């Protein structure tokens, strides 16, 4: 399978595997690499079928699978979790609500995130620079992960660009068109008035406080620069449409 590899900041990368076979549309499935303090952290791990592409992509930045120290899943769907068994030395984490989605014996490799008292913040042991928030929708245990070092906000499939072409062929881009389209999409969902949208807008509100510079989704383009304003704009598009 073809893949794209792009840097976010020093020690932070996105790998996007092009998949024209699994679904009825061609899509990019993303995973992310963070390197710091002797740790190599993966956010999501793709399908098992992606492993040859992932091995090749990692090797270009000097990483072998056995060097990966942590795998964190944004959610438990197979296209984000299945490839995790490649990383034999890694400690692996998933939200407890999504742990049942993992197939046997893969589930046995994972530690479940521990919710704190407010039911929205979660902790992954030994990864103090990462803040993990439950986002309410897509799956029971879907989380967003904010990295205070790279300022990247990893949202998984809570909001993504599945099946969409990369604007201008760029994997990481500001993309004003994408921002406007995302706000219009949220406004349209608000007008439909589904119960699920109420959960979505609450999850989105939890992401506004982060001073993010990268909006890292589970599929497709990664948006860069002034992401806090973008997230707030989506939230306003949804809440204002609800009130009309």
TrEMBL record:
Domain of life: Bacteria
InterPro entries referenced in this protein's UniProt entry, alphabetically: Metallo-B-lactamas (IPR001279), NDM-1-like (IPR050855), RibonucZ/Hydroxyglut_hydro (IPR036866)
Pfam families (alphabetical): Lactamase_B
Annotated ranges, domain Metallo-beta-lactamase: 28-219
The protein's name: Metallo-beta-lactamase superfamily protein
Source organism: Sporomusa malonica
């Amino acid at each position: 399978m073809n893949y794209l590899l792009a840097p976010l900041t020093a020690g932070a990368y996105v790998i996007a595997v092009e998949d024209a076979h699994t679904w009825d549309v061609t899509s990019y499935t993303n995973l992310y690499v963070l390197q710091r303090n002797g740790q190599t952290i993966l956010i999501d791990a793709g399908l098992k079928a992606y492993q040859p592409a992932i091995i090749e992509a990692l090797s270009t930045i000097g990483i072998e699978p056995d060097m990966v120290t942590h795998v964190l899943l944004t959610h438990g769907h197979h296209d984000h979790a299945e490839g995790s068994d490649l990383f034999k030395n890694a400690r692996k984490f998933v939200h407890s609500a999504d742990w049942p989605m993992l197939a046997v014996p893969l589930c046995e490799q994972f530690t479940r995130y521990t919710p704190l008292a407010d039911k929205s913040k979660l902790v992954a042991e030994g990864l103090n620079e990462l803040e993990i928030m439950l986002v309410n929708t897509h799956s029971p245990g879907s989380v967003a992960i904010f990295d205070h070092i790279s300022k990247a906000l990893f949202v998984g499939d809570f909001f993504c660009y599945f099946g969409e072409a990369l604007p201008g062929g760029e994997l990481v881009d500001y993309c004003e068109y994408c921002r406007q389209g995302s706000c219009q999409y949220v406004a349209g969902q608000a007008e439909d008035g589904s119960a699920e949208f109420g959960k979505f807008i609450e999850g989105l509100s939890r992401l506004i406080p982060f001073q993010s510079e990268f909006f890292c989704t589970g599929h497709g383009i990664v948006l860069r620069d002034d992401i806090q304003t973008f997230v707030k704009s989506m939230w306003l598009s949804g809440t204002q449409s609800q009130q009309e």
